[in-house]
């Protein structure tokens, strides 16, 4: 009999991911997107799938080698619209579930980014870049080289020359998200002055009266989220918003709540002030507002009725997306439960069987553990162990630190999110793996979210090392064989461990911040840094030095692998060069690997596998004593 094995790195990189869930208004059909790896072309391909309740089966609606995403059912539940690439631009296509041919609707030069059906079914509202680029042809201006997203309407019944109407200008607004009132008479949208990330905190809400061409700015002096929806009668809108005014967050970590604006009287209310989590409104139905929020290591959904308490629609698991019918009677979502990847559900019945990929495979066990940090704060984390865990054995321990920091690690089969660290291979090699939800992680309440304020790195290190100490104390981890790794903010904490601790045998810093001064000057989100440290580097250089790994470079002694995307705008590459030069000068074993053309994440399966192999080799060599091999093969 063939011995069972864990998933290989290639298999992990090929795991299907289900997203883009959409439900038809009659509640009978679900559309979703399935992402799979194409090893021949070294890319990933998204295709639209449909589940028909009457047939009791799912099938691929799009099958050719063309990217297809964002399915949305027509108001009459007969047709499906989606985005598909034409050249390098996404255009709207419409296809009936009963016909093979698809009709191209738009022909935008720069493509369509988001769209919605007109409630009458006679056309589409969509976002596309303005025709005029805000730049000068002879030079590159950092803050003025972009196209703004405008709102367009296309009437699919009219003649070619008159069917497209531009509803907003391309100078004053870059629209991120929008919704249409149920009667089709108004549009609400969230827009910023430009698409530059530095402008995101300057977003505003606008209501457009389509027939009158009248635009109303709501003057909400708070930071807005990227979700907004109309009430059934069109008189109110619901949106995610910061708790305090914008200016406060120039030097403080953002927290959020849900807000409702009444256009009849200008009144704004916050119905969930005792709800200690960021809440995302998804759709306002006849039965209430469908909302989604994180509760520790679960992502849940519920209905918020008029003047009532939230009705829970899920109890556990990670619901990535959810869609609901206008009457509130039918619900579809994609969810992963502990130790599994995502599946599609309709009215709480599972429709897909993607987890069959694990048949005859070994799979690590994931569980939630908790411990106290050095200051008594309770920290949780996900512990992954082998199926045949020996309670009398001390295992080498690897710590994988999530990015964010306002994110978390989850007990689902997290390779759906964690594309750079091969947890299954680490387990197969004999390691156990801890993923700590350090202070600053989301899902544990606003106070926990803000608990790392002006203590970046220092407090995060305490949270990580106290988790290591907990596993050593209970006898499962070998204190002399511990490694740590992470990407982005997780890479920052790993870099902090590299330059300020001798507790680890090996470290991997992926896309990590190493010097907050350097990152502040180069990143596309400098406002984020000010939120967490309270000021800019010119007015408070001490806090930037105190929380920067490079400040402690003379203490570095741990072999450190550095991996970085060449085109990373969030954590630009000077961070990697600075750490590498410092470690070289300190004569610490180090390797710097730059992935050409890569930004924050890898969009090629071969690159994902390369990143994972390098980490497996690094920790196997320095902790298990195996030969290194060649990093570049």
For the structure shown, list the relevant keywords.
about 625 residues; alpha+beta; 8-stranded mixed β-sheet; 4-stranded antiparallel β-sheet; 10 helices
Structure description:
- With 633 residues, the chain is α+β, with helices and mostly antiparallel strands.
- The protein is 15% helix and 36% strand.
- The chain has 10 helices and 38 strands.
- It has an 8-stranded mixed sheet, sandwiched between helices. Strands 2-3-4-5 form a 4-stranded antiparallel sheet, with no helix packed on it.
- A hairpin with a 6-residue loop joins strand 26 (318-324) and strand 27 (331-336).
- Residues 135-141 have low confidence and may be disordered.
Quick recap of the structure?
The chain is of the alpha+beta class.
Strand order of the largest sheet: 31-32-34-33-35-36-37-38
Molecular shape: globular
Overall pLDDT, averaged? 91
Radius of gyration: 25 Å
Overall SS class: alpha+beta
Q: How is the main sheet built? A: 8 strands, mixed
- E-strand count: 38
Q: Quaternary state, please?
A: single chain
Kindly state the percentage of residues in helix.
10-25%
């Amino acid at each position: 009999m063939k011995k069972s094995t864990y998933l290989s790195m290639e298999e992990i990189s090929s795991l299907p991911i289900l997203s883009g869930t959409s439900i038809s208004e009659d509640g009978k059909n679900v559309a979703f997107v399935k992402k799979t790896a194409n090893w021949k072309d070294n890319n990933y391909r998204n295709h639209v799938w449909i589940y028909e309740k009457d047939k009791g089966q799912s099938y691929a609606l799009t099958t050719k080698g063309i990217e297809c995403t964002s399915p949305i059912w027509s108001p009459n539940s007969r047709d499906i619209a989606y985005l598909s690439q034409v050249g390098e631009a996404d255009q709207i296509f419409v296809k009936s579930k009963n016909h093979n041919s698809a009709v191209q609707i738009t022909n935008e030069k720069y493509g369509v980014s988001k769209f919605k059906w007109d409630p009458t079914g006679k056309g589409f509202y969509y976002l596309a870049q303005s025709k005029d680029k805000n730049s000068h042809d002879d030079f590159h201006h950092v803050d003025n080289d972009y196209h703004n997203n405008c709102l367009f309407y296309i009437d699919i019944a009219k003649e070619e020359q008159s069917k497209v109407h531009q509803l907003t200008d391309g100078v004053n607004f870059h629209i991120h998200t929008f919704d249409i009132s149920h009667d089709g008479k108004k549009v609400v949208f969230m827009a910023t002055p430009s698409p530059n990330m530095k402008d995101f905190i300057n977003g505003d809400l606008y209501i457009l009266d389509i027939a009158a061409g009248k635009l109303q700015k709501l003057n909400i002096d708070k930071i807005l989220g990227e979700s907004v929806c109309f009430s059934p009668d069109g008189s109110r809108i619901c949106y995610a918003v910061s708790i305090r005014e914008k200016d406060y967050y120039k030097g403080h970590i953002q927290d959020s709540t849900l807000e409702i604006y009444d256009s009849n009287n200008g009144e704004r209310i916050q119905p969930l002030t005792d709800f200690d989590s960021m809440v995302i409104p998804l759709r306002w139905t006849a039965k209430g507002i469908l909302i989604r929020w994180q509760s520790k290591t679960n992502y849940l959904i519920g209905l918020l009725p008029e003047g009532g308490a939230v009705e829970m629609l899920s109890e556990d698991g990670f619901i990535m997306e959810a869609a609901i019918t206008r009457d509130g009677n039918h619900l579809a979502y994609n969810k992963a439960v502990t130790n599994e990847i995502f599946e599609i559900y309709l009215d709480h019945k599972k429709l897909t069987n993607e987890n069959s990929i694990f048949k005859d495979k070994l799979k690590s066990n994931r569980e939630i553990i908790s411990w106290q940090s050095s200051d008594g704060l309770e920290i949780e984390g996900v512990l992954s162990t082998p199926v045949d865990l020996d309670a009398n054995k001390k295992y080498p321990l690897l710590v994988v630190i999530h990015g964010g920091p306002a994110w978390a690690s989850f007990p689902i089969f997290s390779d759906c999110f964690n594309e750079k660290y091969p947890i299954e291979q680490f387990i197969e090699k004999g390691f156990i793996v801890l993923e700590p939800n350090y202070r600053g992680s989301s899902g544990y309440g606003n106070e926990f979210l803000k608990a790392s304020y002006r203590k970046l790195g220092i407090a995060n290190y305490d949270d990580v090392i106290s988790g290591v100490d907990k596993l050593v104390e209970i006898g499962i981890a070998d204190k002399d064989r511990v490694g740590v790794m992470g990407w982005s903010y997780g890479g920052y904490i790993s870099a902090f461990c590299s330059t300020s601790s001798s507790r680890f045998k090996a470290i991997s810093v992926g896309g990590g911040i190493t010097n907050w001064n350097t990152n502040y000057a180069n990143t596309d989100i400098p406002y984020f840094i000010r939120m967490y440290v309270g000021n800019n580097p010119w007015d408070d250089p001490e806090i930037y030095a105190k929380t920067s790994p490079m400040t402690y470079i003379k203490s570095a002694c741990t072999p450190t692998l550095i991996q970085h995307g060449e085109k990373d705008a969030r954590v630009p590459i000077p961070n990697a060069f600075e750490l590498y030069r410092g470690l070289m000068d300190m004569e610490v074993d180090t390797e710097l690997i730059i992935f050409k053309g890569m930004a924050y994440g890898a969009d090629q399966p071969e690159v994902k596998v390369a990143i994972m192999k390098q980490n497996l080799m690094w920790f196997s060599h320095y902790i298990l004593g195996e030969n290194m091999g060649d990093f570049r093969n």
